[in-house]
Amino acid sequence: MPLLKISNLQKNFDGLEVIKDISLEVEQGQVVAIIGPSGSGKSTLLRCATLLEKVDSGDILYMGEPVVYTDKQGKTCYAPHKDLKRIQSYFGLVFQNFNLFPHYSVIKNIIDAPIHVQKKSKEEALAIGRDLLARMGLADKENAYPCQLSGGQQQRVSIARALALNPKILFFDEPTSALDPELTGEILRVIKDLAAEHMTMVIVTHEMSFARDVADHIIFMDGGVIVEEGTPNQVINNPQSDRTKAFLSRFYEI
Q1: H-helix or E-strand spanning residue 106
Q2: Which residues face 67 on adjacent strands?
């Protein structure tokens, strides 16, 4: 059973169809990279999958549990609130602009949700948070504030915050787009380490070499549809679609 299954998803903004009948599956332990030009619908797809945007039609299931479904009358429905709250614990999302609380210390940014959402004790949450900061190479920054950190450090705190809730699947929306090239490398190394630990991830990225090296499955989107998908070797090294070839020609000789 797929950890995430999306079927026939559609999303419109003021009559503009941004997501057009997209279907995909993500298996446990799989790393899926979503690539494509700006405006292709990649980030909107992630926002729909993580319930930040309401879909117009289609189905979304986590571990076989329906989040969004179509009823017998063809109406798009969401699961009851109590079920949505539980299902939301299955996933975490790392934003491109960090989204840390500026008035919280690093450690408070990480432990706030485990305490208030998962009802963990402060001691248990602190143990989890400190362990994650050590994994991120930030053990000495727990009492710092976001404004005192580099962009790369802030993004590592964002990743630690998402991991603190022990999600089954982690979404990344352009996790390096706000960083300079030197800081980009440190975030990509963290994500590579998570992949080596078999963390299930869906990553929207413009880093083609990274997608090729880390992902098990690559999806190329354009114009709100999946144009081509397959292994990195199939999509990046041997693309079949002219549109995929044209996009990748900006990065590689094809």
Answers
A1: helix 106-116
A2: none
